[in-house]
Amino acid sequence: MSIRTQASARPGSGAAGSGPAGVLPVAATSLTMVLWASAFIAIRAVGAHYSPGAMAFGRLAVGAAALSAVAAFRRVPRPRGRPLRLVIGYGALWFGIYAVLINAAERHLDAGTTALLVNVGPILIAVFAALFLGEGFPRALVAGLVVAFAGVAVIAVVTSTGRRDTVGVLFALGAATLYAAGVLLQKQALRHVDPFTATWLGCVAGAVVCLPFAPALGHEIGAAPLAATAGIVYMGLSPTAVAFATWSYALAHTSAGRLSSSSYLVPGLAVLMSWLLLAETPAPLALVGGVLCLIGVAVARLPARPASRPAGDRADGRDGGWAGLTRPRDGS
Question: 131: Cβ–Cβ under 8 A, 6 or more apart, which residues?
Fold first, then answer.
């Protein structure tokens, strides 16, 4: 889950320095990546006791309550009109429906495989930007698409020991699609709304979308073990509220492009945590497919050749193109 702004327009948004002021953004980024990776593990563990919708509502309700408590003690500007609609839109898609789909995916797939699949999201962002923002289909994007979806095909074949596994792949890809749509809406919203407010109201919007699952949560919480319920509270506080706060802090003190690259660590961390905590690892060929997905994302992010761009244009994507928006989906 990312908070994306034009980094150059924010004070201190350049590369982090070498002193204490430079250490804090690195620490914040590291904490964010670990927390987002841990969400995949928590979902897998809690999913044995809570249904996807109930888990999503519980997590978002806890996160919204925590963020609302912070908002009550600070002067937070309230967006109106179109910016508010954009925040509600991305919150509904990314926080709300995404959470339900990712929870459903992990009822069929291990945490590491799910994390690898969701990381095709950045390429989908590029496709949406090409289709709806007129950014075109450069050769690097097309090549990245081919490589990434070859990886998805490998994972789908490896996990297709039954219908349930194939359904899990489709759920994960659906979550990646919602992530991509959410990022594009978020880009528009963050032109007018500060990152904390966007995160807070987006989380609230996601919780409202998941309200129909509240009765299921009330029913299941009585039968679930305390550890599973604690897992939902953990996901609401840590990968949702805390991780978004630390991401926003890091983004305010680090270039967006550099920070986005750090999210390539999330799938690897998720695989490692899954092995250590759940004794689960993706099948070897699924790991190969996941690596292909990440390579495809990296290829698609390659800058265009300067010669192919008009003089004076930026060729590295930092001029507002899709590459400045995208990062692998980390935070489940």
Answer: none
